[in-house]
């Protein structure tokens, strides 16, 4: 049994090591994505004009009026003091060609005092330019920058499958780390004095044992981040009912009707303010996005600048039909079924933000640890592979040496 598990661990580890090395290093970086991006690109984050800031809704109106080619799809409702207000945009359709206008950007930074656009970029573009570096790394973390193929997000699926393999391999690794009950202390020890292969082995085995629980959490939540709809939610629904919402249950959406008009963002925000009071939420609407493919609006409730949700289970979100204004669903942290709360905790755990600043430090360190475990695992495999090859070569040469020796004695 142990021999079979060793083989499984070896081949699982070899198959996913490079993926986890990339995911670990990029994860350590994007734990600080906002801070690093702002440090690298101050002109994209710091407002040029001092003075009273306009509301996000007014800024969106000005941006769309100044450039009819684009439509604002996501915007914070207020800018942080001294900062630009960053919006996501998509091209509108050209009435003459019925095709989207060509745009080489999907994110803009707007001066909140004037409505002028300070910067434009394609968030997630394959580029190492300073302006694009952090979004590039962020997207690399969970998609490897692989494109959609045949309507399938190859990168997201691939990294989700890597997470599943990693989860199973973590269980196997823990079993293999304790070959003997009497020698259990060795599985926690590091032979720093020995160095070389001995230390490499201990970094891989003992290092993995010390942080095993955290590794399992990161592996499980990585699957949830990438394969929530097709894998995790169906699995969770087997043991706990999940509250429908338009993001994960598009069947609850109303099909668009001829003559439908899209309600204004202002109207949706008014509905959100009323719904937030009805739910006794402590924070006002903080951001709004429009998903044309869903024909729905989403509104997040958070304080200005806290769109990630820096502590606890994250921010509340509510959804409305874009034509009728009917509320389609809500995700209120800490409320709902056991399955709902399990799904709510996935991103806060994966990002470390459930524990605030300390959690982000921990998850950044975990990213480096995952990269080290992946690298040491590959080094161990390569050393043993070379040893097996030398052993096989010696076994092939042994008969020849014996035959040569016999011939020499006979002569």
UniProtKB/TrEMBL annotation:
<feature type="transmembrane region" description="Helical">
    <location>
        <begin position="209"/>
        <end position="227"/>
    </location>
</feature>
<dbReference type="Pfam" id="PF03929">
    <property type="entry name" value="PepSY_TM"/>
</dbReference>
<keyword id="KW-1133">Transmembrane helix</keyword>
<feature type="transmembrane region" description="Helical">
    <location>
        <begin position="361"/>
        <end position="382"/>
    </location>
</feature>
<dbReference type="InterPro" id="IPR005625">
    <property type="entry name" value="PepSY-ass_TM"/>
</dbReference>
<protein>
    <recommendedName>
        <fullName>Iron-regulated membrane protein</fullName>
    </recommendedName>
</protein>
<keyword id="KW-0812">Transmembrane</keyword>
<keyword id="KW-0472">Membrane</keyword>
<feature type="transmembrane region" description="Helical">
    <location>
        <begin position="12"/>
        <end position="32"/>
    </location>
</feature>
<feature type="transmembrane region" description="Helical">
    <location>
        <begin position="154"/>
        <end position="178"/>
    </location>
</feature>
